[in-house]
Amino acid sequence: MGDVLASRRFRERATPEAIESVHVHLDSLWEDASFVPEIDRMTFATAVVEAACNVVQHAVPETADPVDLGVDICVREESLRAKVSAFGATDPHLGNPEPEMPDEDAESGRGLALIRALVTTVTFLRQDGTNTWVLSRDSHPE
Hints:
Layout: E1 4-13, H1 16-32, H2 38-58, E2 68-76, E3 79-87, H3 111-118, E4 121-127, E5 130-138
Antiparallel strand pairs: 1-2, 2-3, 3-5, 4-5
Helix pairs in contact: 1-2, 2-3
């Protein structure tokens, strides 16, 4: 699978301000991983930010405690991977196990489709009150 060449990890309340932290961590990550092609940086960063925004905008707390956003990113020579987690959130699939694509006139609901278009794989895990989306993108250094 290859060694981790650069990584960033953080966890904080799932607030709009947390999205700025995602951007700051990604910018810092690219300083350590300058070998990643610009197109891969842009598309992967867009997917990670979109996933984090979905947590901030849509995660519903499972208890009275607020939801935390966690982002764990690692870069290997030929792949980028991020785990975007909603700690303390309810299962987003309750009552709707297979979300449908919105109508073409809808103004929201396209986030997951956008993420899937930008990365190689997207998986969802739910464990102990935490929802985690694992995003990976194949990348080939220039």
